[in-house]
Amino acid sequence: MQDVTYRRPATVQEASQLLKDNGPTARVLAGGTDIIVMARERRRDTSMFVDVKAIPELNQLSFSASEGLTVGAAVPCYRIYRDETVSRLYPCLVDSTSLIGGTAIQGRASLGGNLCNSGPAGDSIPSMIVLEGEAHIFGPNGWRTVKVEDFCTAPGRNVLDAGELLVSIKFPAPRPGSGARFLRFIPRNEMDIAVVNSATNLTLDGNTVTHARIAIGAVAPRPLFVPAAGEALVGRPLTDETTAAAATASRDAATPIDDMRGSVRQRKHLSYVLTERTIRDAARRARGEIVSHV
Ligand SMILES: Cc1cc2nc3c(=O)[nH]c(=O)nc-3n(C[C@H](O)[C@H](O)[C@H](O)COP(=O)(O)OP(=O)(O)OC[C@H]3O[C@@H](n4cnc5c(N)ncnc54)[C@H](O)[C@@H]3O)c2cc1C
Question: Which domains, and CATH codes, for the chain?
Fold first, then answer.
């Protein structure tokens, strides 16, 4: 472990100032399930932990029909999947948060940490993309907003500038007749990094798709929003053919690498399969059916 100073600011202004004054080795600490491991293994030079868990805005979890859902960047997974409103209106977020790590990890790990860690396989990111999440950021120049699909730029990299921190992620209220689903493939049942993951959010009018967003992860340097996959569905009836066209668009958008977890061929194939399955499950949710989170 490195010699690290610990600070616990009470406001976003104070946190931003600490990050700005202490340079790039001052690191935001949310749940710590990524950053403590990395600092301990010296994969990230760290001189200071700026613990953001005492800042009220980063702990907010609230919903209103007009504002939608606000998830503070440090809210741990368990608070999200145990929340009655989130379970009812955003089951796709429950899919993601209930499979990140195991119970102990979910007690600490946050959506904000998952997004700011900016791993290509981050399991909450495809869900946040398809739910039209917006990252609310505070820094030396004040507030700004970035769509979740534009937040990550490369493995471990994102749009945050010096002195900036993610404060919350906001999601619009779900459209009437919509449903969303997240799935991942791992070679065992839990506690592994996704070989591929995928999320779909679609809105149905009868059997016609009126709105669709599809994202895939672990198949490119950053989690991928795939507009072409949604466009293959919108304005058309949901059939095996249109579902296959959307899944093909996902497979075509994937530019994976070979590594110890999977081959390019397997990842391309899984992009197709998981997109197909998330479309089917999202449609079931849109029709009011219960789809289990596992
Ligand atoms: C055993 C184990 C199992 C895991 N399983 C999974 C899994 O199944 N799926 C998965 O996706 N991940 C998994 N992870 C990784 C990790 O748990 C997640 O990425 C988690 O969501 C990170 O959240 P955190 O609050 O712990 O982030 P932290 O570790 O506190 O922070 C992560 C990074 O983001 C930065 N950061 C955090 N919050 C902010 C902010 N508000 N503003 C600016 N920067 C910020 C930190 O400085 C750091 O660089 C696992 C980790 C472990 C140890």
Answer: 5-51 (3.30.43), 56-171 (3.30.465.10), 178-286 (3.30.390.50)
Which residues have C-beta atoms less than 6 Å from ligand 1?
A: 27-35, 37, 52, 73, 99-101, 105, 108-110, 112-114, 116-117, 122-123, 160, 165-166, 191
Residue ranges with strand state E in 101-251 = 134-139, 142-147, 152-154, 157-158, 165-171, 178-185, 196-205, 208-217, 224-225
| Tens of pLDDT, residues 244-294 | 999 999 999 999 999 888 899 999 999 999 999 999 999 999 999 989 877
The residue whose CB lies within 8 Å of the most ligand 1 atoms, and thus the one to mutate among 70, 116, 158, is 116
Which residues pair with residue 51 across a beta bridge?
29
Q: pTM higher than 0.90, yes or no?
A: yes
